[in-house]
UniProtKB/TrEMBL annotation, chains B, D:
Cellular localisation: Cell membrane
The name this protein goes by in its record: ABC transporter permease
Domain of life: Bacteria
Recorded topology in the membrane: Multi-pass membrane protein
Recorded family membership: Belongs to the binding-protein-dependent transport system permease family.
InterPro entries: MetI-like (IPR000515), MetI-like_sf (IPR035906)
Pfam families in the cross-refs: BPD_transp_1
TrEMBL record, chains C, E:
GO molecular function: ATP binding
Domain ABC transporter, chain residue ranges per copy: 7-239
Domain of life: Bacteria
UniProt source species: Alloalcanivorax gelatiniphagus
Similarity comment: family membership: Belongs to the ABC transporter superfamily.
SMART domains: AAA
InterPro entries linked to this entry: AAA+_ATPase, ABC_transporter-like_ATP-bd, ABC_transporter-like_CS, ABC_transporter_ATP-bind, P-loop_NTPase
Keyword Calcium (UniProt): no
UniProt entry tagged with the keyword Transport: yes
Protein name, as recorded: ABC transporter ATP-binding protein
């Protein structure tokens, strides 16, 4: 038998990325040796991929246009799950509308999807995205800032949203990723990234790696309870926290995320035909690309618009969808 | 004229105040020496006052219990961590990383500090360089370290190392410079060459100072632990705190802080013990 | 002479109890008197407790037995009335000579002395006017010792305590300092208690010499070189030639030798 | 018998070796004093060697140019940052934060350190507490600080403060303890009360040591800057480095590191200058 | 006596040039000889350069003029042949008395001396056998000084240099140490050059006394107390009573007074 081929991948500790551990534990692709690192800062992962020190990472789905514009040799290879309620915009007590936010500071991850979420929500509610002050806070820190009354609104994913609402009973939820446009555009969600070198030099391994991921998702859908336990164990999270995000039944979990299987991912990425539930359309990724690019241009994070091919590489997904 | 003692006393009249009041004792005075019992008592008092203040603050509604738990909640979390969640393994991992990285730091910094402190030219060459290096923010090196050393332990150890090694070198050099010239000259006139003087006098004289400096810098090392273990961490106190942060388990975070503080105190005590044991000649010199 | 006048030490004893080690009896049952305006010299072998006794008088060390009083006031702590010159030239390195000398007056708020030029007076008395603005590290040991003396004197203490004040000076400076001290004592009528190791110094300066024996420190003999009345004041050569001087000198040497032969234990 | 000098010289035979070779001079010897010119030269040499080594390493293909840029690329990035991207504003913000936080830290730690160093009982009460506190990882306090102090400057300043204040207190206490008892006793016998002795002797004597300690701890403060400015950052050197990281602009990150190093050196030099100027009595004491 | 034997100092001078300040001439044109086995004493006012001269002989300070040699070998640096006892009791605090005394032999790898019990011999010679395992901080000043002396002697130097070795000892200890030194010198035929501030000590110990004058330091007079031949060795009282002793004593006192009156500048 051949020695298993090593693939180095990383994730930050978030239940939505935990399927890699199932793939590893259950040896779903035996000829791959998955070396999984927990790297809490995705930018560290991207720079590690630049240097060839890492092949694959899971992170939120906004980095494609940035990588293309800044010539970071990293490609998004598939969208892996939309947020279905885990993300929400929470307004501090006393803030009743977008209008009230003018001139206030709001906590978002600058350069992350949540900043776009906030920007779109503001514009939809008649306030220019530039009329608020964006304060760069990671979730963990945003709770404290909101509770302390130092920001007027914040974007949270679970469990931070609930914690913030617990701590501030008079706070209100202004928007949730499970509603309307938000789920239909699947703006908020996660993705899988691979380094250019990995994609170019080891295309088969890239396809197998992706295959391993989706096999893990499939396995989890079959054995949700055990799967959640594996994820909780490897991330060091209490099971309850994992269930809050992934649900208990392996189905679309309202209030958490909707974990795509290989087929759903293929449709979303436009490599296999067929429609998706919850109002998502086939090939939705192009719209996602354009929306995020629009906003990164608005926020000044990228200098120009790039074609999607510059930041998204569909070959591994095509490869696994072929059979 | 020589008078015997008896004469001189009975000669003068009887002194006016045979029983004068004792020296005013003050609760606070300079240069007081406390025995270990009193020190222990005072130390405990200080800690109790702090814990009490913490308790009051936590229950005064400055923040939700969830975000600012009191001492009891943190104790419970700590117990739970050790009993249920195998925290001991994390603690051991962290201690191991600290010890390895710090040993390496000493192994690098000590020769540098010794040579810099002993020889002005080496100091002139290296001090401006290392002096600037000690300002470097260790976290900024994470990308390079990840690239060169991978995501394993060596990268975390290197980070901890970078965090203290330059400080250590500069401060050990400062200690080395304190060696009185008279010791060096004595050794020279006894026939000691440069190498002999360096080891038997300069190094030997500085040893207690080195230990003290190491004690201080080990504390700095511990403060870097959290940063080091955020990156590519699977175990360790810092990694636990990071995980706890993801789900706002502030009680766990504080339990981590408490653990680090207690470990720090323990290491401090260990250092002091070794110090007393290895340097008996520094004890109880009553000379002013 | 008023009964309660001058320095009175009554049965003073001191036992050191350092953490964990055996208690060490440094002094036992020392009783002595020093009338105002007189110079007393403490003499005795090393470790017999001279410094300890001096420190007790200064109020820096608490006696474990007995009582001390100066001019009727019991000693309960350090005070401006008892100035001390330490063996280790302790001039404050961060103050110039002038600032050092003025220090005691400044901190006790003695503005009248400051105004009346006490500082310049004593700087001149110890002949440091040329270096009044120098820092102590620029001075020689003898000069630094003189700074300490001027600083203490400027404070007008009733009792001047000196622990081997001239021990490390070269002979010429030493003689000068001795003359200086005697001149000042005569002029200011200060009482002085000093520790010395030098027999010539003790006999030359002292109105009374207290010889202590060691282990534990006790007052062994009180020697009064009264013959000095017959010698013209300040005539050192005449003094050294006086037969009584030579007799006392030999006597003290013999005392020292006796004490010396009982020594040899770690301090 | 007294002989005049002339006699004694002509008496003996002419000394054998009128011109003996000079004392062996060694390039490296203990206790050498270098003038500032030589120090500057050596310092520059050290730096040049380092930059050259860096250059070689960067171009030796240890890593991609992008992730490990050489000195030239970093210089270019630095120039670009200042010229095009208003980096000066960031630098000024960072300096301001450091200075404010460090002043606060000194304002808190100095009284504590002074009292702890002077009075054994206060030391007994506080040392075990502050001694443990100095192990606390400042980053772990970010959530609480955000809650209490908001996202503005005060939160960053508080973080920088927490990072150094406990170390500072403990180390300033160490300095204070060095005051020789003889100085204190001298002041007491001159009529100084406790307060007077505390200020005019204990504090005054420790002042140079305080400055030295502050110099060392200011360096620690700079290393925390990056951590402080990552949180809710809008400007500052750390924030710039954070932004650069997002785009894997390692040259900018290194430019930030270089900037911090240079600022550090400048502050070091400033401290030394003030030291020389304020403490003239510590200069050139040739006593051994 | 062989020409190149003993210590020969020829026109030695030393000018200190400290950074930025005026050069200070510490010594100028000092020439002297000390034959093997003799004791030379350097006497002179404070700051006249006695220590500087001694340090030059030890090879610790480089002369800026002239040359020095010991038994024909030029002085080019410190060496085991010239042992030095410093004024500041420098016994290594981290070594016990025994380890201190053995230090020189250990570092020079002199195993034969170590084997032959040189260490115990000299510990006994300075009468420290009772405290051989104590650390220096447990000893009194005089004891520590004796440690330094034993350590230097154990090294068998050809020349023993001592800078005010007994300056801070009490008289009895001082006398004992002087006897000890003379005894050792006679037995080991060591040449000794020592600095003293004490005239009695200088005349008692010295075969030759070099009196230096200050500003700058020059050799002013060479005094040979040859009358000592007439006095039984070690009989201090007889010595002090000898008329020639008293003449030299007065003579030196006068020299000192003359030098003293030219002093008064910052060191
Ligand atoms: N703080 C102390 N703790 C313990 N023992 C002490 C202390 N101070 C002094 N002693 C002991 O008390 C005795 C007397 O000491 P003291 O310094 O008074 O002697 P001394 O006569 O001044 O000696 P010297 O002439 O050497 O200065 C000595 O045995 C000394 O070791
Ligand atoms: N390293 C030095 N730098 C500058 N000047 C020095 C140095 N060492 C000594 N001197 C000066 O040289 C002169 C001689 O000093 P030295 O110490 O040799 O005198 P001394 O005769 O030993 O005095 P004392 O009797 O006080 O010990 C003094 O004026 C002194 O200030
Ligand atoms: Mg004494
Ligand atoms: Mg000298």
């Amino acid at each position: 038998t051949r020695a298993a081929e090593p693939v180095r991948l990383s994730l930050f500790s978030w239940p939505g990325y935990g399927f890699w551990f199932i793939a590893q534990d259950k040896k779903l692709v035996p000829d791959l040796d998955l070396e999984i690192s927990v790297i809490e800062d995705p930018y560290e992962s991207f720079s590690l991929m630049t240097s060839g020190g890492l092949d694959v990472t899971s992170s939120t789905a906004e980095y494609g246009p940035i990588a293309a514009d800044k010539e970071v040799p990293v490609k998004m290879v598939t969208y892996t799950n939309p947020s279905y309620g885990t993300d929400k915009i929470v307004l501090a007590p006393g803030i009743d509308s977008a209008e009230d936010l003018k001139g206030e500071s709001v906590a978002v991850l600058v350069g992350g999807l949540t900043q776009i979420f906030m920007g779109i929500w503001l514009e939809q509610n008649g306030v220019d995205f530039n009329d608020v002050e964006y304060t760069n806070l990671i979730m963990d820190d945003a709770v404290g800032a909101l509770v302390g009354g130092n920001v007027a609104a914040a974007e949270f994913w679970e469990p931070f949203g609930s914690h913030a609402l617990d701590a501030l009973p008079k706070a209100t939820v202004a928007a949730t990723s499970s509603e309307g446009d938000w789920i239909e555009t699947a703006l908020l969600g996660d993705a899988m990234y691979m380094s250019d070198a990995f994609l170019k030099e080891r295309p088969e391994a890239a396809a197998k790696t992706m295959d391993a991921y989706f096999k893990a998702v499939a396995w989890w859908k079959e054995h949700p309870a055990e799967g959640n336990k594996i994820i909780a164990k490897h991330l060091g999270f209490p099971l309850a926290d994992v269930e809050k995000v992934l649900g208990k039944d392996g189905k679309i979990h309202k209030g958490g995320i909707w974990v795509f299987d290989a087929d759903q991912a293929g449709r979303f990425m436009g490599v296999v035909p067929g429609e998706l539930p919850l109002g998502l359309s086939n090939g939705q990724i192009s719209q996602h690309w354009e929306t995020t690019t629009d906003w990164w241009l608005k926020f000044g994070l990228v200098d120009k618009r790039h074609p999607m091919e510059a930041g998204v590489d569909l070959s591994p997904l095509k490869a696994i969808s072929a059979h | 004229m020589t008078v015997s003692l008896r004469d001189s006393i009975t000669n003068g009249e009887a002194p006016a105040r045979p029983q004068a009041p004792a020296l005013k004792r003050r609760w606070l005075d300079f240069g007081q020496q406390l025995d270990w019992r009193r020190r222990l008592l005072l130390g405990l008092t200080g800690w109790l006052l702090f814990v009490f203040g913490w308790y009051l603050a936590a229950h005064a509604g400055l923040a939700s219990e969830r975000l600012f738990p009191g001492p009891v909640a943190v104790m419970n979390a700590l117990v739970d961590l050790f009993m249920e969640q195998g925290f001991l393994g994390d603690v051991v991992s962290s201690i191991r990383r600290i010890l390895i990285s710090f040993s390496l730091a000493v192994a690098i910094a000590l020769p540098l500090g010794l040579l810099m402190g002993a020889f002005a030219r080496i100091d002139g060459l290296l001090n401006p360089l290392l002096g600037a290096f000690r300002y470097l923010p260790a976290p900024a090196f994470i990308p390079l370290l990840l690239m060169w050393l991978g995501t394993g332990d060596s990268q975390k150890i290197a980070l901890l190392l970078i965090g203290v090694v330059f400080f250590l070198a500069i401060m050990l050099a400062d200690v080395t410079r304190q060696v009185p010239a008279s010791f060096i000259e004595t050794a020279k006139t006894l026939g000691g060459g440069r190498r002999v003087v360096l080891w038997t006098v300069v190094f030997r004289h500085s040893l207690p100072g080195y230990m003290d400096t190491c004690r201080q810098m080990l504390a700095v090392s511990w403060t870097y632990l959290v940063i080091a273990e955020i990156v590519a961490a699977t175990d360790g106190i810092g990694a636990m705190m990071m995980r706890a942060k993801r789900f706002v388990h502030v009680d766990d975070i504080m339990a981590g802080i408490v653990t680090i503080g207690l470990l720090g105190l323990a290491f401090d005590a260990l250092f002091r013990l070794v110090y007393r044991w290895r340097f008996p000649y520094l004890r109880g010199a009553h000379q002013r | 002479m008023h009964t309660a006048s001058g320095l009175i030490i009554e049965g003073a004893g001191k036992t050191f109890r350092a953490g964990g080690r055996d208690p060490r009896v440094a002094l036992e049952g020392v009783s002595l008197q020093l009338p105002p305006g007189q110079v007393g010299v403490l003499l005795g072998p090393s470790g017999c407790g001279k410094s300890t006794l001096l420190r007790m008088v200064a109020g820096l060390e608490e006696p474990t037995a007995g009582a001390l009083s100066l001019n009727g006031r019991p000693v309960t702590g350090p005070g401006r009335d008892r100035g001390m010159v330490f063996q280790s030239y302790t001039s404050f390195p961060w103050l110039t000579v002038r600032q050092n000398v003025a220090y005691g007056l400044k901190i006790t708020g003695d503005h009248s002395s400051l105004r009346e030029g006490a500082v310049e007076h004593f700087i001149q008395a110890v002949r440091l006017q040329d270096v009044a603005d120098a820092y102590p590290h620029e001075l020689s040991g003898g000069m630094r010792q003189r700074v300490a003396i001027a600083r203490t004197l400027a404070n007008h203490p009733e009792l001047l305590l000196m622990d081997e004040p001239f021990g490390a000076l070269d002979p010429e400076t030493r003689w000068q300092m001795q003359e200086l001290l005697l001149g000042i004592v005569r002029k200011e009528r200060t009482t002085v208690l000093l520790v010395s190791h030098d027999i010539e110094e003790a006999l030359y300066l002292g109105d009374v010499v207290f010889f202590l024996s060691s282990h534990p420190g006790r007052l062994r003999e009180v020697i009064r070189p009264d013959f000095k009345k017959d010698v013209p004041a300040g005539d050192r050569e005449a003094l050294l030639d006086h037969p009584e001087y030579r007799r006392l000198d030999m006597h003290i040497r013999r005392l020292m030798s006796e004490e010396g032969s009982t020594q040899g234990q770690p301090a």
